[in-house]
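Re: beginner question about structure tokens

> Can someone show what the tokenized structure looks like for a real chain? I only ever see the sequence side.

Sure, here's an example I had lying around. Input first:
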Amino acid sequence: MHDVTILPKTSTRPGTQRPKLYKVILLNDDFTPRVFVVKVLSGIFRMTESEAYGVMLTAHQRGACVVAVYTREVAETKVRNANDAGRAEGYPLAFTTERED
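And the corresponding structure tokens:
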């Protein structure tokens, strides 16, 4: 008779993790015209004019506002494009990213 050892069945399914998400945050400043902020939010973040106006007002009243949440690469690209658009017009428009926990 043979000795047979029965091993427990193990799963070898690869673990796929969701990518970490990053918030894009609009920081308020008292110099960038509201119309320009709305234009950037509409163009780069694909918001409607009324959505963009609401985000701009919230940032104005509270000092900052979360614009959207993306994967890190997308968030950083949108922030760079938005900040570049402000600088190109001579405005201190500032967006930043923060990891979502």
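Each token stands for a local structural state, so reading them left to right follows the chain. The CA atoms of residues 8 and 77 lie 47 Å apart.
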